[in-house]
Amino acid sequence: MSTADQLAIGSLVKDFVYAMSVELRRYGLDRQDILALHNCHLKEVRHDPVDDSHALYMEWRDGYGHCCGSLLVYADGMAYAEWDVLQVHPQRPQCFVEAVIAWGRAGEVKADLHLCQSLA
Q1: Mean pLDDT by 10-residue block, N- to C-terminus, for the chain (120 residues)?
Q2: Bridge partner list, 100
Q3: What is the 3-state secondary structure of the chain?
Q4: Taking every pair of C-alpha atoms in the chain, what is the biggest distance, in angstroms?
Q5: What does the pLDDT look like over 94-114, one tens digit per residue?
Q6: pLDDT over 90 percentage in the chain
């Protein structure tokens, strides 16, 4: 990967982390640990046998080495990220926030919460 590619990926990661952190704060989930996601621990190219495409897969890990999120960047510049939240929604106690997700391309990232019905 060239230096220019590494800088572009670094910028994309920052865009996604920022969009996800804004979405979390919008609902009162002030998770400062998301701001440390600028370093991806695993980077590899993955092949999709269905359409024969390739995508760059990156993984974020917690202090214990467990995967807590990922970012997938497709050849056309589109990307998708997911980061585990795993806590009750502060405004809707009947819902559990499984993750914050983001999608788009550099400079055009959207984010949303992935909710599940709470069992409690």
Answers
A1: 71 89 88 65 86 90 85 92 90 91 94 86
A2: 83, 113
A3: CCHHHHHHHHHHHHHHHHHHHHHHHHCCCCCHHHHHCCCCCEEEEEEECCCCEEEEEEEEECCCCCEEEEEEEECCCCEEEEEEEEEECCCCCCEEEEEEEEEEECCEEEEEEEEEECCC
A4: 50
A5: 999 999 999 999 889 999 999
A6: 41
